[in-house]
Design a protein that fits this description.
Layout lengths: L1 H22 L2 H21 L2 H9 L7 E5 L7 E4 L4 E5 H9 L22 H32 L2 E2 L2 E2 H6 L1 H17 L5 H26 L1 H4 L2 H17 L7 H9 L3 H13 L8
Parallel strand pairs: 1-3
Antiparallel strand pairs: 2-3, 4-5
The structure holds zinc ion.
Zinc ion binds next to α5 and α7.
């Protein structure tokens, strides 16, 4: 008697397992990561961003390789300078997408707009999340190219090794936000960049708490990320539809970005949001 019933149970389990698997991200995640890696570099070339930095700062940029990790839950992505590799962790991304709130920032709530034209919302969210992480890691690779250059020439256009190496996460996060808006075309109309206005009060409050967060050992670790998100957000709010026309000016600005200036700018526009449109 046990054989038929067991067989049925086994069959049901198999089907249930397969259905669950078919709808999970697991199968498609590799493809999405690879495609976002490719698309990220295509976009940067389309806007001539890497070429601009190479010629303006006389760096020799070598495109990093991509490595996909199966089982690293603690990071979404990372840039490994010694092997020039961007790593993206599937486990951590799956966990993020499965959680109820997809949040990029660490110490505050930060809104990221997203166009969903496809029926598959889960896929669209996954792609945009990976896209955003990818630009963050790519900026690290750009910063390290600049640092290499600075080892030979101690200053390039008023930037020094120390300023960059002290502000790596801040700079990568600021770039991440700006380029995310640009390549998704979210800067083009108000429906897209309105989120950057909504983030300004959050960011202004964040600056008030920053000293406290910096004294908190656990939270201090994440301060530069949120500061970078907020700084990038101010840039998006300030330029809106003219983000593209001003992108090289913005890139120069991020290359010269440090923590003190980021705090001053967020404070200034947080207190005078009307100036965003006039400065
Ligand atoms: Zn980083």
């Amino acid at each position: 008697m046990n054989s038929l019933l067991d067989k049925i149970k086994e069959y049901i389990n198999d089907v249930a397992y397969n259905v669950k698997n078919a709808f999970s991200l697991k199968n498609s995640l590799d493809k999405i990561i690879e495609s976002e890696y490719k698309k990220a570099f295509e976009s940067l070339h389309k806007y001539v961003i890497i070429e601009y930095i190479e010629s303006n700062y006389k760096i020799n940029y070598i495109k990093p390789k991509l490595e996909i990790l199966e089982d690293e839950p603690s990071i979404n992505g990372a840039y490994l300078q010694f092997v020039n590799e961007i790593i993206i962790s599937k486990k951590s991304i799956e966990r993020k997408i499965d959680s109820q709130f997809l949040n990029m920032s660490y110490n505050s709530i930060f809104l990221y707009p997203l166009y969903i034209n496809e029926r598959n919302i889960r896929k669209a969210i996954t792609e945009s999340f990976i896209r955003s992480v990818m630009f963050h890691e790519i900026w690290h690779s750009i910063d390290f190219s600049i640092l290499h250059k600075l080892v030979k020439d101690s200053t390039i256009k008023d930037i020094d090794y120390f300023t960059i190496s002290k502000n790596l996460e801040l700079r990568a996060s600021a770039f991440q936000v700006v380029i995310y808006y640009l390549v998704n075309g979210l800067h083009k109309d108000e429906k897209g960049y309105i989120a950057s206005y909504a983030n300004i009060p959050t960011c202004r409050n964040y600056i008030e708490e920053i000293n406290e967060l910096q004294n908190d050992e656990d939270k201090n670790k994440y301060v530069p990320y949120d500061l970078g998100f907020c700084y990038g957000n101010i840039i998006v709010a300030k330029y809106g539809p003219s983000l593209k026309e001003n992108i090289y000016k913005i890139i120069d600005d991020i290359i010269h970005l440090d923590k003190e200036r980021a705090i001053d700018v967020i404070k200034y526009y947080g207190d005078n949001p009307d100036k965003l449109l006039h400065d």
